[in-house]
Structure formats: structure tokens, C-alpha cells
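Pasting as-is:
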Amino acid sequence: MVAYGAEQRVRVPVLRARWLRQTFVHWPFRPADVQALLPPGLVVDEYDGAAWVGFTPFVMADVRPAGVSSAVPGLPTFAETNLRTYVCREDGRDGIWFLSIEVANPLMLAARAVGAPYTPAHLRVTTDGDTVSYAGSRGKGRVSYRLDVRPGDPVQPTERDVWLTSRWRAYTRRLGILLETPVEHEPWPLADAAVDVLKETLTAAAGLPAPLDEPVVHFSPGVEHVRLGPSRPLFT
């Protein structure tokens, strides 16, 4: 069972931030279809016999590298969008594998050094009344999305909700070496969300077929105390 709170303390973070106005859109897929996109050393994690892929647009704020007490000039509040799935190592340690990461601030491309698949993109997050809207496009717009949601009432997370949203390490791959990055923050406050518009080509661009069912959708106002630890290589 995935832990609801962070599994470890990140005592010496290399990056601190706030993750705000995050929507989680999760689709179920055949495990074999997702496993085909994973590198050696990672096995798709399953819930109810399915692999799950999450489309998660959000806002990054107050980004601070190690040793800096305030947000960095040149790294203002900006949008980011992840397409991710859930994996395990052979020792059972679960985490996130990113299929793609779109980001509106080119300075974040420095994370490519540890294999994070960042791609510069035109992204927008806006709020109009009770609707939160996300839009993005990569390159010349051949890969794009639009998502409009209306957040509902807060929910007490179910076991599946925790499994989908509460992951405490990310795996990346650089020069053939698998790396693990620990993450710490408070538990996600989750709410139901009604989807008014959902159009995307990110999943197809990642090599995924059509999902098995309609998506499971949650909204979160965000978490305020994100701490990312140093990435460490995993040698097997």
C-alpha cells in the first residue's frame, strides 16, 4: 500500500517549491501497453489489474535551489504539465516514471542532466469563476491539450486516490543509468472535479493506445512545502 504521507524526510533538498492548482486526470491502460514504454529495471505498478497514466497540469511557484531562502529571479511562477505512470523496482520501491514533462520556463530544462524529460512548451493556467482552465502546446502545436475543470467539494481520499496521487520518489534514466529522486511534501488535499473540456494528444505522442475506460479526475489547491532531494544512481 502506498503511504499517504511522505515515506522519507528530504533533509538536504536540492530544490524547494510550491505546487499549486493541480488537476489529476488518470486513465487505466493494459499493463503490457505501459510496460513497453518503461526502461529496464522498472516494472509497471498496477491497481485493480490496470496500469494507470496520469495527466497532471499545475503551477510551480517559489522555486528555490539548495541554500537559497527566497524564490530565484528568473524563475517566477510558471506552468508545468506531467504525463506520468507508476512503477516499481525489483525491490518493490514504487515511484513515478515520467513519459513527458512540458514546462513554460526554459531554466527548468537543467533537470535534463538527471534524465528528466523536460520539453519547452507554451502553457497557460487560468481561473474564471469556478472553472480552472489549462492549455498547452509543444513545438508547432502538433502535441497539445486543453482541460477545463470545475473543482467540487473536498474528499476523504480512498485507497485508490492515495495510490494514484501519493508517490514519494521519481525515477529517471541518464546515459543508461537509472536514477532515483526522493520527494517530500504534505499529503495532497483532494477534491472532486467535473470536466467540461478535455482534449489532448500527449498520450498518443507518448506511444499509448486508447485507454480502457473514462478518466478518474481530482483537483487539488496544491501543496506548499515541496522538497526534492538529490538524484542518486541505482546500480544493479
